[in-house]
Amino acid sequence: MFHPSPNNVLPDQTRGLSSWTWPAEPSLVEMLGDPVFRQLMASDRVSMESFTDLVSAVRQRLAG
Is the full-model pTM beyond 0.70? Predict the structure, then answer.
């Protein structure tokens, strides 16, 4: 799982040292396994089933 830390977050040289960029975005699988993400879903009363149904519907729609 991707965990931001000073060692894997790089300063964006084009905008100065006060701006940070991520080397890569976490995958959906990584996000779904993150306890903070799961807690946020629970606090919003979003079930994993409804979230995965939404992701599937969006993927189908984007595929045409």
Answer: no
